[in-house]
Amino acid sequence: MTLFATLLAFTLMAQNWAFDLGQSTRCIPIPHQLSVCHDVGYSEMRLPNLLGDSSLESEVVPRSGDWRSLLQTGCHPQAQTFICSLIAPVCLDTFIQPCRSLCLAVRDSCAPVFTCHGHSWPEELDCDRFPAQDDMCLTPLPKHISRFSKDLPQPACQTCPPVDELPSLKTVMDALCLTDFAVKAKLFRRRVASKEPELEVEGKVEFIQRGPLLPYDTANLLQQWLLLNLRCAHALVKPGRAQLYLITGTMRSDGTVELTHLFPWLKKDLHIAAATRKWKHHKC
């Protein structure tokens, strides 16, 4: 599956942003199938929506899965608010659009996800097309509210790190010496699409070398790395399976986390377990 492929196809084929905000619309309940917008604070939406979609069955619902893929990366705390204001606008006397400032905030955080998958920010989400007046549209959160999430280490978009099966003891020790952190984590991949992310970290993350990682955020950080670097992630775990790994990585100068080696932690492989024991007293 190519992330956002369907989404990008429909935005490129869509009509120009010529949606008439004064045209006749109808209010309908947000359907169960549109789960991506279930917890946005309202239960009814307008159709046609702000992307010009008029059919739930053939347009809005089928395309929502692609938006879900973007939102699951956690690229911005208000990405859901922004997307749902377009695909399932709240049913009031008039359309409430996202402000240009909200679009810019979401774009600056989420465009790198598109870039990592070889695409650009969709033209239909061009921020210049949204109103600049903050009192007539949806505004971004104050900086003091959203600042904390931005201070957390973020995953890097990168080339796929090497995966070494049955490595020698020296290979593992060298990898530990050349990196900022090392963790033991089980990666899981769902067999079928659901509202939950396709890939996640199963269970607790065990630190071999904590380095710059935050204990309460490391599992989430690894999951976001998997969703961002989806092509690499698909090569790591088969659908419906879980795989235990020793994962090493470094912190880049821009504050993003890059994975440098992944070692499948197999029962028959004694070198990885030996290396993690020796590491406690090892001097590089």
Write a concise synopsis of the structure shown:
This protein is α+β, with helices and mostly antiparallel strands and 284 residues long.
Overview features:
OB fold (Dihydrolipoamide Acetyltransferase, E2P), elongated, two-stranded antiparallel sheet, 7 strands, 2 domains, alpha+beta, 284 residues, Frizzled cysteine-rich domain, 34% helix
What can you tell me about this protein's structure?
The chain starts with a helix and ends in a 5-residue tail after the last helix. It has helices at residues 5-13, 56-71, 79-87, 100-116, 143-151, 169-177, 218-228, 230-236, 270-279; strands spanning 26-29, 44-47, 154-155, 181-189, 199-209, 241-251, 256-264. Helix 2 packs antiparallel against helix 3 (79-87). A hairpin with a 4-residue loop joins strand 6 (241-251) and strand 7. The chain folds into two domains: 26-148, Orthogonal Bundle (Frizzled cysteine-rich domain), CATH 1.10.2000; 152-280, OB fold (Dihydrolipoamide Acetyltransferase, E2P) (Beta Barrel). The longest helix has 17 residues, at 100-116. The strands form two sheets. A five-stranded mixed β-sheet has the order 3-7-6-4-5, sandwiched between helices. It has a two-stranded antiparallel sheet with strand order 1-2. Residues 5-18 have low confidence and may be disordered. By secondary structure, the protein is of the alpha+beta class.
